[in-house]
Amino acid sequence: MNNNPKNIQSVQRAIDIINCVAEAERKISLKEISSKLGLNINTARGLAQTLLANGFLSKDVEQGTYTLGYEFLTKSKLVYQLQIQRIRDIAHPYMKQLTEKYGVSSWLQISFYKDIYTVETLDAPSTSYYSYTPKSGAKLPLHASASGKLYIAYMPEAERERLINNISLDQLTEHTITDRQKFRSTIQKVFFQGYATELEEIDMGISSIAVPLFDMRGALSGTISTAVPSAKLDQIFKSILTDLKRISMLITDGISNRRRL
Length: 261
Known about the structure:
By secondary structure, the protein is α+β, with helices and mostly antiparallel strands. The protein has helices spanning 9-24, 30-37, 41-53, 71-102, 146-153, 157-166, 180-193, 230-256, and strands at residues 28-29, 57-60, 65-68, 105-111, 116-122, 196-199, 206-214, 220-229. The chain is globular and about 60 Å long.
């Protein structure tokens, strides 16, 4: 897999501007965009005008500030239909198998726009005493969740280092990793072992394990994860990890169209 594809600078800068405007979560000026991205003001202006002309940015003429444009709304439904729903259709039967075999909740999370979102959840069977499921569409904390660690681990190296250096390592439980060097080592381990765990780092008594899904370019497309009471995960860890890795390969093959499922 090529985790460091060559980028076209002008296209990357335009994408950086879109991300900068979105992350501001408010109207933002061209001067702020230029400063945040380290771009020459004239370069930023030219790129912003191009994005504005194509509907990807909207401008408040009186204030001279920018927000995301309506073009994103027109395309969001298509993104769901062509990408997210397709992955859900491929993943669902395998998630069902996993959930029924181990009596656990399983989640499908999609890597999208510098974050990871829960798009499908299957609850543990009614015979199980516990079920732990995030809300559909919910974002999980990147630094504390198993899927978030995978998301960071498979970023391009430079982007990964920037995030690790700047991410807020909020302490959610006594087990949350808050030391930056320890977190960096954890992410390196996740990359090399091909899976991630979350051991009571978000909620006490609940642990999780996640495996990556890749698209046809070898980029992280999403994750399959499961969350169970910590004591139960200890008992089934080796077996469920084997099944998760197998499922990861099958779903990845389906996403990339390398062979018929």
